[in-house]
Amino acid sequence: MLQGSLVALVTPFKNGQVDEETLRKLIEFQIENGTRGIVPCGTTGESPTLSHPEHKRVVEITVQAVAKRVPVVAGCGSNSTAEAIDLTKHAKKVGADAALQVTPYYNKPTQEGIYRHFTSIIKETAFPLVPYNIAGRTGVNITPQTMARLAELPEVIAVKEASGNLAQMSEILNLCGDKLVLLSGDDVLTLPVLAIGGKGVVSVVNNIVPREVADMVAAWEKGDIADAQKRFDRLLPLSQAMFIETNPICIKTAAALLGRIPSGEMRLPLCEMAPANLEKLKTALKAHGLLT
Asked: Lower Cβ count inside 10 Å, N or C end of the chain?
């Protein structure tokens, strides 16, 4: 079962190319610090600007580097069902454990279209799927009723919920029961999601403070609610700072400032932070004791 702190891993670049050596180092850093799942090629991994060969290479490297120590949930989403099927087949072939599938974006399918998108992927791949609900990026929400239909399929093992709507997440759990695992898609809602019955988080801030996120979730799992809340409260300003500008601009910039990656290089249309926002980010890192 997917649970605990999973990282929405950044994709490091060097001179316009995927920095494979740094990618491997990032994965080791995550596993050494208690991360319980690696999620490459999601939004934080800049999947929209990875070519398909690059995308597949990143997944392949991740699977090899992880070596079955924790689950690899490969980002395989697309607004083209055929492309999502192709990426999922590749993830399965190279040994990933599941595929993260964002709701088709831009074309804004109906709920029936969303359902058929996921069922078509399952039919063609017979591979575990984690639907990723983030209407703020895709323009369409997966309703609890549609999630309940999907939860009837054994291949749908979890949902990454980034709607920001705790009432909706509670309804998903009420309708789906133990048929799937609810994972928070927002660092700032990790503790509330755990409180309503979620099992973990696919985290952005985990890229720079994996041990802190892992320890916060572990405290909750042990039943030490006060300690979990204390740790969550400490992480909250840092988590909020990762979204001063569009993700993953801030997390890549922070990772570079802290020496986690050699460069915060991104691909257009993402670009460097505005100077004033960069200072806000540095202030948050200093307040957390990460930057002097």
From this structure: C
